[in-house]
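REQUEST ID: PR-0412
SUBMITTED BY: lab tech R.K.
PRIORITY: routine
TASK: structure prediction, single protein chain
INPUT:
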Amino acid sequence: MDLESPRCIFRGMSSETPLPGYCGAAAGHPFHGPYHDRDYGFPLRDDSLLFERLVLEINQAGLAWLTILKKREGFTRAYHGFDVQRVAGYGTHDRARLLGDARIIRNRLKVDAAISNAGVVLHLREEFGSFAGWLDHHHPLPKDEWVRLFRKTFRFTGGEITGEFLISTGYLPGAHVPECPVYDVIVKLGPPWMQTG
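STATUS: complete
OUTPUT:
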């Protein structure tokens, strides 16, 4: 897939008809634009990418999403490319390293949640083959049931975090308005929210 295509289409849109919501606000922005055009709402299958999105959504709690996007590369380096097995094995030294790393959000609860949730993903792999396999097993669910399931399964996952994680990974609709060119790109990929069973 050509990941540059959505951005090129988006950049060529008429400014006379601005899009509502995130689709309109992200246009041309140095951080929101690339995330909107290449990541947000695109279906994910890889455990590292799903885990990255979960960690980023957890870290966004109480902060602006722009703060997280600016620190995204720092998160990737600090969490060893979001290698689930490696993060699950983090010990006291790694916790201290993360809490001292200015490239990320240095919040003990969020750091502990990332490490704990990596361990959860390893357990999900044993039963379902992958993080995506676990998500697929429970799909489709209404948002409130997803929230209950995430709260029971993961740490630091309330309603907003769970909802944004599922929208951003294609399990719930709502990432893009239908008028947005990226919407059509995502529809062609057949995200889980389009599949009802």
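NOTES: Confidence is low (pLDDT under 50) at residues 1-15.
REVIEWED BY: pending
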